[in-house]
Design brief:
Layout lengths: L1 H15 L8 E10 L2 H6 L4 H5 L2 E4 L3 E15 L2 E15 L4 E7 L3 E5 L5 E5 L12 E2 L3 E3 L2 E6 L2 E6 L7 E11 L13
Antiparallel strand pairs: 1-12, 2-5, 2-12, 3-4, 3-11, 5-6, 6-7, 7-8, 9-10, 10-11
Length: about 190
């Protein structure tokens, strides 16, 4: 009789148990991606579209300007040479956000804070291959670039020449996954 009572009680508990839950899962993936010339064509991006995309720098950019002032004077029969210099640096860390101003498959001009405007160039001459937009300079000698910022001449130092434009790409994948959460069985 005791066993029959336990069996009936077990059946009653099982029949009152909650049904398994089914939960759809949506996976959001954000990834940093090189911005390439092919993206403009592949996604039919207009100038307005490009203005709405957040751009970033891939590497640190260090721009250095040095002004030397040499003066000569004579004091008490001694020739005085006064050599002094002033230097300014603009440092743009990797991952710094910037906004699109204008551009095409060959050149893209972006703006940072403090009215710093830089141009990035697609080094592919015919612009037919998929390539990144790298920091542009008037000239590059031994990995040191010369460029103008706010009308002043600066030298791009370090890995500045390796810096290219990147964007965030977000993929939405709607995967429906039926999940059943089991509570397990215990020995009675």
């Amino acid at each position: 009789m005791k066993y029959i009572f336990l069996i009936v009680l077990s059946l009653l508990v099982i029949s009152c148990a909650k049904k398994p839950e089914v939960q759809p899962t949506v996976i959001h993936t954000i990834e940093h991606s090189d911005f390439t010339s092919k993206m403009i064509t592949k996604y039919s991006l207009s100038q307005k579209d490009l203005q709405n995309i957040q751009f970033y720098t891939s590497h640190d950019i260090v721009l250095h300007k040095q002004n030397r002032v040499d003066s000569v004077s004579i004091s008490k029969g001694v020739l005085l040479l006064d050599k002094s210099s002033e230097s300014d640096e603009i440092i743009i860390k990797a991952g710094t956000p910037c906004i699109f101003l204008k551009g095409d498959k060959k050149l893209i001009t972006v703006s940072f804070d403090n009215d710093v405007v830089l141009t990035f160039v697609n080094p592919n001459i015919k612009c037919t291959e998929d390539s990144n937009y790298y920091l542009a300079a008037d000239s590059w000698i031994d990995e040191i670039g010369t460029l103008r910022v706010k009308g002043e001449v600066y030298k791009a130092l370090g890995v500045s020449g390796q810096s290219y434009l990147a964007i965030d790409k977000k993929s939405l994948e709607n995967n429906t996954r039926d999940s059943i959460f089991l509570k397990g069985k215990k020995v009675i």
